[in-house]
Amino acid sequence: MERPRYALFTAIPFVGHLNPLLRQAAELAQRGWRVAVATHEEIRGHVEGKHLGVEHVSLGSYGPMAQTVEQLEGEATLDPSFIRGAAAILEWLNGLWPSMFDGLRTAVRNDRPDVLIADLFAAAAIDVADAEGIPVAVNDADLLGSLSVEILPPADHLPLPLTRQSRYQIGPMRRILQPLSRRLSALSFSWIVGRRLNAHRRSRGLAAVDANTRLRDRLVLVNSAFGLEYPRPLPPLIQMVGPMLPEVIDSLPEDYASWLSEGPPVVYANLGTVALASERFLSVLGEGFAAEDFRVLWGLRQSQHALLPARLPDNLRVEAWVPSPVGILAHPNVKAFVSHCGINSVHESLHAGTPIVGIPLFGDQRDMGFRVQDAGVGLSLDKSRLTSADLRQAIRRVLSDASFGRRIPAIQSSFALAGGVRRAADLIEHLAAVGVAHYVERRSR
After folding, report:
1. What is the pLDDT of residue 415?
2. Using alpha carbons only, how large is the chain's radius of gyration in Å?
3. How far is Cα 285 from Cα 282, in angstroms, rounded to an integer?
4. Which site from 12, 52, 78, 174 is most exposed, i.e. has the minimal number of CB atoms within 10 Å?
5. pLDDT tens sequence across 30-85
6. Which CATH number describes the domain made up of 254-414?
7. Which fold has domain 6-242+419-439?
8. Domain 6-242+419-439 identical in fold to domain 254-414
């Protein structure tokens, strides 16, 4: 009998980057593929048991680095500079390269996949695919602007990543300066990412690469859609496939369904799986949630509970774990979502039809906050200047202004048209069957 085709997925050890790949893997498994997800041991539990037919491949432990990531998360959350916080996380991810490269190279030599699907930030996986001659697709679970400016066609009317700007703040002078800004961005990327990447490659006998252009002839699956993402021209190998959303929204346990239904409107609050807030910041949030005209269900990591005030508002329910965040967001009495504007969180909220009050904390979250606000499906607040009154006012504005909700169906339609999980799986199958050489521009030597 002919063996099933084998797809191997791998991502950095962050849930927001891993979940989209798990959904793509599950879709291919349903189509008869053999699929596996390669991760470090520290995140094995998130892979195992999530989807039938999805195997786990161990990349070993990242050891002492596990102790530093929480500290970095806290520092990035508190740092007023989004660029500095992002650079710190990138530096930590750079330290994972050797263990990921060695573990993945051993795995593919022992059991060679037909295609490898690598998270955009899993640079070592792309290097393994190159070294072993395995077709590779790159999954961008981030914003489109996370790709290097060198592989995106110029769009002088749009802000560059992490520049604290909305598309509507790009005036004539800024447009004139954009070519220079793009060049500086490329140089910064080469210095921050490329220099370290090539040092790792040399340590494994691999030639140097240009970090800005190495994805130019790759298939890149961007997990977003125009309408929420800023529109711009793209080459054929960069495909906007939409968010990797669940097809079925899980039902809620009876106690949650009853609590959500019985009383004033509910605001769901969750700052994600990575952010670590300070005691002062949590106090601001707790005071901002105090109100008589709405209730708040706050999903907050258990390690943060000790920092909460001893006395919490009566309208506030705090849980270390909530069942089915998408199910909660889709509940008819949940009218707003207070979010850090993580990519997956925003997509899930809009998929469920719930407008957003964003409090971006680090990295690209502020850029996503601008997109939420520019699309008219929510508001975005400045974490450094946030007051309890600001938060309460923003929540009440989203609850009372129906225009935020009226704009969401257009975004939902854009998500559906992009194709989501099925479209991503189609493109992976296309890559495995015929490759992408027919899309690659022939360049003169």
Report:
1. 97
2. 22
3. 5
4. 52
5. 999 999 999 998 888 888 877 778 999 999 887 777 667 667 777 777 788 887 87
6. 3.40.50.2000
7. Rossmann fold (3.40.50)
8. yes
